[in-house]
Design a protein that fits this description.
Layout (H helix, E strand, L loop, with lengths): L1 E6 L2 E4 L4 E9 L3 E10 L6 E6 L5 E3 L7 E6 L4 E6 L8 E10 L7 E4 L3 E6 L1
Parallel strand pairs: 2-11
Antiparallel strand pairs: 1-3, 3-8, 4-5, 4-9, 5-6, 7-8, 9-10, 9-11
Length: about 120
C-alpha cells in the first residue's frame, strides 16, 4: 500500500501565496505521474497540475502562470507553489500518485486525504 499525506494548506488573502507538499510513503516501487486536483463545494474535482517522473508538467488553464508544480523523486514528494491566489482557488486540494507495485505491470492511482485552501477576498 501507498499512503499520501498533504500539508501546507490554510487561509490566505487574495494575491497571497501558499505552498503545498505531499509525501508518498509505504511499499513504493515505481511512481510515474504525481499531481494535484482540487474540489470546491458543490463542484466536481478538477485537475490543477501534474508532473511526470521525468519532469514534464501539465497545468489547468486557470492556474497557468500562477502555480508551479515540482517534485523530488528521491523523497517521493510533490510540491505545489501557489502565487497570486484568487478567491476562486478556494477548495480542498488532493494530491495523487500513479504507482506500480513491484512485480506488476499496472499503475494505480493513490490519493491523499486533502488539505483545505481558503482564499479570502
Amino acid at each position: 500500500q501507498v499512503q499520501l499525506v498533504e500539508s501546507g494548506g490554510g487561509l490566505v488573502q487574495a494575491g497571497g501565496s501558499l505552498s503545498l507538499s505531499c509525501l508518498a510513503s509505504g511499499s513504493i516501487f515505481s511512481i510515474n505521474a504525481m499531481g494535484w486536483y482540487r474540489q470546491a463545494p458543490g463542484k466536481q474535482r478538477e485537475l490543477v497540475a501534474t508532473i511526470t517522473s521525468g519532469g514534464s508538467t501539465n497545468y489547468a488553464d486557470s492556474v497557468k502562470g500562477r502555480f508551479t508544480i515540482s517534485r523530488d523523486n528521491a523523497k517521493n514528494t510533490v510540491y505545489l507553489q501557489m502565487n497570486s491566489l484568487k478567491p476562486e482557488d478556494t477548495a480542498v486540494y488532493y494530491c495523487y500518485a500513479d504507482h506500480r507495485p513491484r512485480g506488476t505491470v499496472r499503475y494505480t492511482d493513490y490519493w491523499g486525504q486533502g488539505t483545505q485552501v481558503t482564499v479570502s477576498s
